[in-house]
Design a protein that fits this description.
Length: 599
């Protein structure tokens, strides 16, 4: 019996002694197991990655995939976009103190866990998908299916100057908009023949054809009546019909605006324009142009331009001789982004009548990082199927030309644009230009000026090269003030046929300001300056005209929602200037009137 008690007591003591280290050992084992599991996970992850690489190589070689390998292959095809996440909180592994009669301190892990995730690009941004709308019944008010707005502007000033301008705008129930305009302006100067009278009518329509786009239309007619008073004595007794310088312009234009979805890859906007112009001595000009700007969006921000245009120009001079000029142009080019820059590489094959030419069409555009500075360099050619109407717009005193020529401008340019905040933007550009058939203007030297008035002739310079500098600066403060300035300087390095570039202005400066001091008051102002062009004097010797400075201002004040008053002043310095020799402008001119708007 005593032996049994001794055995039980010895067994209890053994269990008591052995239980303490076993418990400590067990607890240490748990801690080690956690560490071992983490290490095992890392090892397993490496094995999985190695296995994935092996599987991917095997899949490429054998072209066999199973379910697990497919998921790995899909993961490998994702773009290399990495999102790094640093955890702000991380659990710590601590040892208990005074276990096995030994002290232990905390092990604080100060390192940060870095986890990398491969994120598909399509998951970096999500497109907003609105919920489906439930249609409700809606009854239109038959009295409000259209909205119209009409305003009439009239004014009267010195030199028997009057102005009438009528505008009517209406929007139909199908969102088709129509705009009509009729204007008439007349003024008389100090010379009996120094007078002109212009009137015109125009229509602009916007037709919503379908959900794919809408059609813009433009119809216009303008008649201009002038008299050649240059070098004509005030006491002339010849009939007024000898000095008529009238012109008539009629035109119609169509333009299709593509309204397809924004993610459409194809963009196009074809247009068709026809104009008929009639000048003095029965000369007339028929001009037709068809153009189709087209570009295609490809992958990786690549665009393919396939612009195509064709124009035909039929001119009949005062001798009833007809001349036809045609221009067919194709502009294939590719645009792409590379090295944080935009590249455009292409060429322009042009067929001018029976003459074929190939021009480069390249451009490089670079925006500096962390700045608002953009550099642009390029080489491009402009081809102009010269119109009689455009020549009259440049110089209203020209005689009908004997023929028209196709003008080209081959330009190599460098441009810098800068912006400062949201208000100020400015820039400048240099271009080296080579011209062919550049239109110049000079006096016609004859003895019939007192009986017919002074006329200018159009001279097409065969070849010329220039250096041109352009600069601009623009400042806008909210909707209160807007200031814009443009400067142009052109220097002729060579002129092949003519001794001088007749009629070309070397320096031009144009400044405009719009100021809205209050909701009722609007003030517009402008300054124009140019250096005199080179022309012939009466002895057929070249000379330069005087420089010119013109300052004008205009004020609009809103009396009521329907009534506005306006005042305009031109040539405020009261110094007559000459853009074309022997055709001086008037002195200071004032005109004032009212604008009435009603619906």
């Amino acid at each position: 019996m005593k032996l049994i008690y001794k055995f039980i007591l010895l067994l209890s003591f053994f269990i008591l002694i052995a239980d303490v280290p076993v418990d400590a050992q067990r607890r240490r084992g748990k801690a080690k197991k956690v560490v071992v599991k983490k290490k095992a996970k890392k090892v397993a992850k490496k094995k999985v990655n190695n296995t994935a690489r092996i599987n991917r190589s095997n899949n490429v070689a054998n072209n066999n995939t199973n379910t697990s390998n497919q998921s790995i292959a899909v993961k490998d095809s994702l773009p290399e976009k990495v999102v790094t996440i640093l955890s702000a909180f991380k659990p710590q592994l601590k040892n208990l103190a005074k276990i096995d009669f030994a002290t232990a301190s905390e092990r604080n892990d100060t390192g940060s866990i870095k986890v990398e995730y491969q994120v598909p690009s399509q998951n970096l941004s999500f497109q907003y998908q609105p919920i489906a709308l439930i249609p409700r019944s809606f009854k239109y008010d038959s009295l409000n299916t259209t909205s119209a707005n009409t305003n009439v502007k009239v004014g009267y000033g010195n030199f028997m100057h009057y102005l009438i301008d009528f505008n009517y705008n209406v929007t139909g129930k199908n969102n088709n908009s129509h705009s009509f305009n009729i204007n008439n302006e007349s003024i008389e100067g100090t010379h009996p023949l120094q007078k002109y009278k212009d009137w015109g009518i125009g229509y602009i329509g916007d037709y919503l054809v379908s959900k794919h786009g809408h059609l813009l239309t433009n119809l216009y007619f303008k008649e201009s009546n002038r008299l050649r008073f240059g070098l004509v004595p005030d006491t002339t007794t010849y009939p007024v019909s000898n000095y008529k310088q009238n012109s008539y312009l009629t035109g119609i234009a169509f333009n299709w605006v593509n309204a397809q979805k924004a993610n459409s890859n194809l963009h196009m906007s074809p247009s068709l324009v026809y104009e008929y112009f009639e000048g003095i001595r029965g000369s007339n000009n028929n001009w037709l142009q068809m153009s189709s700007p087209l570009w295609l969006d490809l992958k990786n921000d690549i665009k393919l331009n396939l612009d195509l245009s064709y124009s035909i120009n039929t001119f009949k001079n005062f001798n009833s001789e007809k001349q036809t000029n045609s221009v067919l142009r194709f502009d294939p080019a590719i645009k792409f982004n590379k090295l944080n820059s935009l590249f455009k590489i292409g060429f322009s094959p042009v067929l001018m009548n029976n003459d074929f030419k190939l021009f480069p069409n390249v451009e490089f555009r670079k925006s500096l990082k962390d700045t608002n500075v953009t550099f642009i360099m390029g080489w491009r050619a402009n081809v102009n199927n010269t119109q009689y109407a455009n020549l009259v717009a440049q110089n209203p005193w020209i005689d009908a030309p004997e023929k028209l020529a196709i003008a080209t401008k081959d330009s190599k340019y460098f441009e810098v644009n800068m912006t400062t905040g949201k208000r100020l933007s400015y820039g400048f550009s240099f271009s080296f230009d080579d011209y062919e058939n550049l239109p110049l203007f000079n006096k016609i030297m004859n003895k019939n000026r007192p009986t017919l008035g002074l006329m200018y002739e159009t001279i097409f310079e065969k070849k010329a090269s220039t250096i041109q500098f352009d600069a601009n600066i623009r400042y806008q403060f909210s909707d209160v003030i807007l200031v814009s300035n443009k400067f142009k300087y052109i220097q002729f390095n060579s002129v092949q046929v003519n001794p001088q570039p007749w009629g070309i202005l070397p320096i031009e400066l144009n400044s405009q300001i719009s100021w809205l001091p209050s909701k009722k008051l609007l003030i517009n102002g402008g300054v124009q300056y140019w250096s005199g062009a080179t022309l012939y004097n009466e002895a057929a010797m070249p000379y330069d005209l005087n420089n010119a400075l013109n300052i004008n201002a205009e004020l609009h004040y809103k009396l009521t929602p329907k009534w506005n008053v306006w005042v305009k002043g031109d040539n405020l310095l009261d110094k007559p200037y000459e853009r074309w020799a022997d055709y001086p402008s008037l002195g200071v001119q004032f005109i004032a009137g009212i604008v009435y708007s009603f619906k």
